[in-house]
Amino acid sequence: MTVEKELHVAVVGATGAVGMQMIKTLEETDFPLTKLTLLSSERSAGKKIDYKGKEITVEVATPEKFEGVDIALFSAGGGVSKELAPEAVKRGAIVVDNTSAFRMDENVPLVVPEVNENDLLKHNGIIANPNCSTIQMVVALEPIRKAYGLSKVIVSTYQAVSGSGVAAIQEMNEQTKEIIEGNEVTPKILPVKGDKKHYQIAFNAIPQIDKFEDNGFTFEEMKMINETKKIMHLPELHVAATCVRLPVETGHSESVYFETTKNDVSAQDVKELLSSAPGIVLEDNPAEQVYPMPIHAVGKKDVFVGRIRKDLDQDNGFHMWVVSDNLLKGAAWNSVQIAGSLIKLGLVAK
User: Fold this and answer.
1) Which residues pair with residue 72 across a beta bridge?
2) By percentage, how much of the chain surpasses pLDDT 70?
3) 3 has a pLDDT exceeding 70
4) Residues noted as catalytic
5) What is the pTM of this model?
6) Residue 128 in contact with residue 110, Cβ under 8 Å?
7) For the CA atoms of the chain, what is the radius of gyration?
8) Contact 109/102 with Cβ under 8 angstroms?
9) Structure confidence by residue, pLDDT tens digits, 321-344
10) Stretch 77-85: mean pLDDT
11) CA atoms lying within 13 Å on the CB side of residue 278
């Protein structure tokens, strides 16, 4: 990855869980930037963050801070993105937004580089990073779509608490300690902070992520349904999702059922296909109890796939288990990958 001029990158929401991962990922991948600007709300401004041995002071995110910025990575909430992303674009920056603010805008590409990198060629200044649970699923499904076609996807997710932020992780840990010691707990965050009811997450499973829509699905489930169709350019694809929060700190897991349009496909065919697919690590050896687990995916950029098997009743139906670090491939790494793709495609730093 090379550039022909100095490259100025900004991270908005720099002190949040995903923002910190973005900074760490930029550093670990040796992203070719020459200047890094870290932005946040007034509450977090003034903090100092280390980047390659140099302390960078976090500044308040205002429109003027995007002067001279080439790529701005946003992860500070949808409201901030709606307000500041257009301001960044006005000042010449390309925005990679990690919120749901622009994902379903028909003029904004929704990108997972392993799946639809060329959609970046149609950007108008803003590129949307998909939902974390969508990203890992489409990475696993795209090689299958290319080789065998796809007609139906049914997914049940087992999502980590880190998807709700640092405060949710702290609450889970505190609840666990209190319950073990025999004390009562008073939930305040999950499933949705500020909603009318909150439930214990420690030693529990909550079948609600985000608010419910009028159709009975949650917003998280509808994100998976709609984003999958958009990313894969399959508006006719049948997709259903059930999203569940588990007391796991980091790493989303998914049980994915899919149907191919081609017949005479075996589970071994799918395994061999995925074993060499970009961004995927196949962990599938039931005889040795080898399969993906979130505890092993933490800190890794890949999508891990296993438990691939043919459905017992539907000849073109298959099941698989998909796991990934929701803060990395599900957020920070995919955003940095998009930034890298912009350089590769000659869309920045010409």
Assistant:
1) 10, 95
2) 98
3) no
4) 132, 252
5) 0.96
6) yes
7) 20
8) no
9) 999 999 999 999 999 999 999 999
10) 96
11) 9
Q: How many residues does this entry show for the chain?
A: 350
Q: Which residues pair with 48 in a beta bridge?
A: 57
The pLDDT of residue 111: 98
pLDDT at res. 35 = 97
Query: 178: exposed, middle or buried (C-beta count within 10 Å: 0-12, 13-18, 19+)?
Result: middle
Helix axes 132-148, 267-275, angle to 10 degrees: 110
The 10s digit of each residue's pLDDT in 177-191 is: 999 999 999 999 999
Q: What type of residue is 236?
A: E
Query: For every residue of the chain, which 3-state class applies, written as one string?
Result: CCCCCCCEEEEECCCCHHHHHHHHHHHHCCCCCCEEEEEECCCCCCCEEEECCEEEECEECCHHHHCCCCEEEECCCHHHHHHHHHHHHHCCCEEEECCCCCCCCCCCCECCHHHHHHHHHHCCCEEECCCHHHHHHHHHHHHHHHHHCCCEEEEEEEECHHHHCHHHHHHHHHHHHHHHCCCCCCCCCCCCCCCCCCCCCCCCCECCCCCECCCCCEHHHHHHHHHHHHHCCCCCCEEEEEEEECCCCCCEEEEEEEECCCCCCCHHHHHHHHHCCCCEEECCEHHHCECCCHHHHCCCCCEEEEEEEECCCCCCEEEEEEEECCCHHHHHHHHHHHHHHHHHCCCCCC
